[in-house]
Prior knowledge:
Layout (H helix, E strand, L loop, with lengths): L4 E4 L7 E6 L7 E7 L16 E9 L2 E11 L5 H4 L15 E6 L5 E6 L22 E3 L9 E5 L4 E6 L9 E7 L16 E13 L2 E15 L15 E7 L19 E2 L4 E2 L11 H10 L4 E5 L12 E3 L2 E9 L13 E9 L7 E2 L5 E2 L1 E3 L9 E6 L5 E6 L6 E5 L6 E5 L3 E2 L17
Parallel strand pairs: 11-15, 16-17
Antiparallel strand pairs: 1-2, 2-3, 4-5, 5-6, 6-7, 8-9, 9-10, 10-11, 12-13, 13-14, 14-17, 18-19, 19-20, 20-23, 21-22, 24-25, 25-28, 26-27
Amino acid sequence: MQKIIAIVGMRRGGSSYFALDITDPNAPKLAWTIDASMSDFTELGETWSMPTVGMFSYMKGANLTVSPGVVMGAGYDINKDSCIPSSSESCHDSVGRGVYVVNAITGDKIWSVSGAICASNISDAHCIRDSIPSQVGLLDSDDDGFIDRIYTGDTGGNLWRMDLIGSDTTKWSTIKLASLGGNTQATQRRFFTAPVIVRTFENHVTKNEEQFTYNKVPYDGILLGSGDRTHPASNVAVEDAFYKIHDYNINPTLFAQLGFPDKPTPINVNNLYDITADPISSYTGEQVLNVFAEMSAFSGWQYRFTSLGEKSLGQGAVLEGSVYFTSFVPNSTVNIGCGVGDLGTGWLYAVDLHSGQKRLQDEKGELVAKKDIGSRVPDSLVIHAGEDEEGNSVIRLLGVGQGDQITVIDEETAKEEVVHTGTVDTQTDMMPRRIYSFFEEK
């Protein structure tokens, strides 16, 4: 029998999740509850993380079990509300340092990873020390119908990879894929949104004297932006960015287990190519190949936000080789008083997935990296597939504020009027296309 389960957390209200069985909408009932007082869930902080659903295969006792499961970060630690990092203060947390996989029907724990043991493993770079309030990203990397990988960021600026291979949960592993934060106010980056996962190829360019060669290299691209969602307007000291991390271990991998590679050194910001100034579009001919060869030596890219206090507060999206993401720039002179003030400005970005080239156009038709989407705090982008006025397939982005600017004819006055659609037309459709990297010689 199919069941419909609705699961809700409490955010600032507490450290519990409640599952409601709403299979019969006329007779809803409580299916299960988990909270920090239960022995299997003591790491739970404030329950911010939106559960993500997938199918799991695992051993329960001597029995192989196949069940839908929900995965959530262990939550938010209010320590991060006031802690100021320094050379002597790391601002590490005491709860929320982990991920839970829970049976969606029963509420029983399938697996978890916790940072509770980190105090006795000070030198372990792959121990979770910061809370995880964000939604996680799930992947079935071998297409067998079961989730075998999790990606998630934390409030210390770290990106984690968890491999759930085979049915023996004691062998499931965790590594820190990237360390993008630090112990200064400028580098206190935090992740509050789910990463976007893209399986693709790159043209890995190598220069030997004056000769260029390239080969296609598959990788999983992990994209997410940093920003303090708890202080969107007041926190202006952090230098936030949007990141793409290359994970070349595309196959199921139990790091540090017998027959598998050791846990790798985490990627850091110095390993990421800076695409902020769109270096590809600045050159032509052989110069472009030089840039691609330089980029190939890095483990991804970063787009550094350049306005004071600018930060990412929502999940991005990838469509036909373009990365879309938003940012928020707080108004430094905000004074709300008794009403709703101008909190700041939202921006929409679009860059090429592989090269970082600009993908938006301004009113003059010139390529730009970003567009003003109005006075608002942007949330996660939503992809909408539909049809235009002529019945053609189109894909639009929702959650972009005022959206595209178009000119319409006022039926009463017969005059042209400029309006905003509230959506962004991505200039693509529902036709499947392979995403790959390429370069164009000019």
